[in-house]
Amino acid sequence: MRPTSQLVLTDAALAKPSNFREYLGELRKSDSVSGYHYVAPKEPQLVDIPEGVHPRIRQVLEGRGIQRLYSHQAASFETVAAGKNVVVVTPTASGKTLCYNLPVLNGLMNDPHSRALYLFPTKALSQDQVNELKSTIDDLEVKIGTYTFDGDTPSSARKAVRAAGHIVVT
Description:
Elements: H1 11-14, H2 20-29, E1 46-48, H3 55-63, E2 68-70, H4 71-81, H5 96-110, E3 116-118, H6 123-140, E4 146-148, H7 155-164, E5 167-169
Parallel strand pairs: 3-5, 4-5
Antiparallel strand pairs: 1-2
Helix pairs in contact: 4-5
């Protein structure tokens, strides 16, 4: 039989610190923490929007106040444009969505016969991503069929999604 892990909370552990910094201080004192490393925040590295970005996409980005991209967004775009695969690992709210939406939308603007399949681990995340994507497509004022395809997709709609979906999210 495989052993299971247990987390035991004492009364002291259940006492809520007043802020996150205090909480981290309490964790550092704990015997259950084997290491601690502080990574200082850095200023974002902004770069120009790559030349290969479709003019209409550039216009939409600028209309949203995005004059420059984070360096990892531009690098992702350029890597995909070069026909290579890319993996992006960054913290929450660091611009990952644009790392994949930008090359996909750019590909669709340049070749309307292109297709993309987005895979997400949860329906909630996929719905959030579809909403963001549709908002961008609305701003582009182009017809890019973007649909969710999952267990809740009616069988009557599945064939239509497969046929008309430029971007299918599941």
